[in-house]
Batch of 3 targets.
Target 1
Amino acid sequence: MNQTRRAHMKMLGAGLGMTILPAPLRASGDMAPVTPVIHVVEMRNRHPENGGMRNVFVPDLLRVKPGDTIRFVTVDKGHNTVSDDRMIPEGGQSWDGRIAQDVEVTLTTEGAYGYYCAPHRSLGMVGLILVGDVSGNYRAVKEQRQRGKAREVYADIFKRADALLAADA
């Protein structure tokens, strides 16, 4: 086979181009493992952008991948984070932090996870984490009855979660 220099350079360039493609464009067998992400949720007395909102998790809604870690950080003392056992997927990890204690939880089971601050739950200090495919328990979590201001806050959170999930579809 008689190959011209130009043809040889084209083939060489194409081969080099394939080795430097970003990971999402490479063949699935060539992809490196995805590094889990750490998401920070602050426990606060007041929302930093809306001082009128009191006793809040910032952010109160997260969309994460299985294997990601959520770090609950005490910005203002007097708060904790507790998973709501009625609002986690079957086989999902629960947590129960002490007051003014930072908590880290790595969520590997897909689904929706509801959580709250024990002293301020009725005041609306609640949150939601969506891990991967939430179709297994999202509807059941959304239908859980809430008391006090938690009902109003969850209504807003689920409205935003519905929009987020619709955008992902």
Target 2
Amino acid sequence: MNSELTDMENIFVNLDVGSFDELIQNIAQPLYKSNDVTEEFAEQVVLREQHFPTGLPTEPFGVAIPHTDAKYVNHNKVTIATLKNPIQMEVMGGMDDSKIDTSIIFLLALGQSNKQLNILQKLMKVLPDEDLLYRIKTGTTEEIYQIAKNEIGL
């Protein structure tokens, strides 16, 4: 097992998907292969998103941080995906079902609640940084990996 939270297999660049469901099915594959998550993981992420949206109206690109309950996680991982074309996602905590175009996804597979809080705090420092979001959106797999390691702390 790889103890890093993010590795090259968990970074997807310029992914071409038509829906959130298709996105999660695609980017969860390395998590399944390495036994980081249970077989219900992707389905549970999609179901949770329907009730507790994770879209964030950040600039210059919308970001989402989908995740699910710790019981579907065997080993902690963070998957990062950039999308060729944005997908519409509901805004986190939105009362009016407002939607945003989302182009950067941080899929969290985290088993302990204290780990979730730690990772969310790291991501919250990144989200207001327009330059960093731009570098993630336009970066190569290697560049995003280096940003995840050196600047986000994943």
Target 3
Amino acid sequence: MPDKPTLYRKRLIPNECIRLDQDEVLLRRDNLLVTRWHTIRPKKDLDHGVSCFLLDKGWKISRFLTREDELICWYCDIIDWTLDPDTDTYIFTDLLADVLLYPSGSIRVVDLDEIADALEQKLLTQAQVCLCMRRLNALLQEIYAGTLLPSLEAYWKAGNGAAVK
């Protein structure tokens, strides 16, 4: 088994599957993967970040940062994933629904129209849409309860080089 797992990001809209060669795996536990990365395609503000893949929940929570390490937002993807244990390869499939949490405290749920489009185009099954909605609901419950971000604080510090216990 390779020292470093192979990671892929699969998107449905647009249809693409990208190998995340440059992502650095900071931590891997049973249901958790933490990575540090730079943007694949240059953006105006977004330069790099840290992502926590909460595999048992089907969430990828990313901390989006500027070149100056200023927080832009926390970007929460609803995902599904597979792991091929023989090759230590993860494929993370974006189920389209996203939640953006801003430092000001505002929250935006986005791309729900893409779920409808994907269902109509048969890019997602009814079962996948149901899974996505349940995972989105669970994520929003943690956000509204104020428990999501504090539970991830140690992993954001790991993204800055601190040890994770």
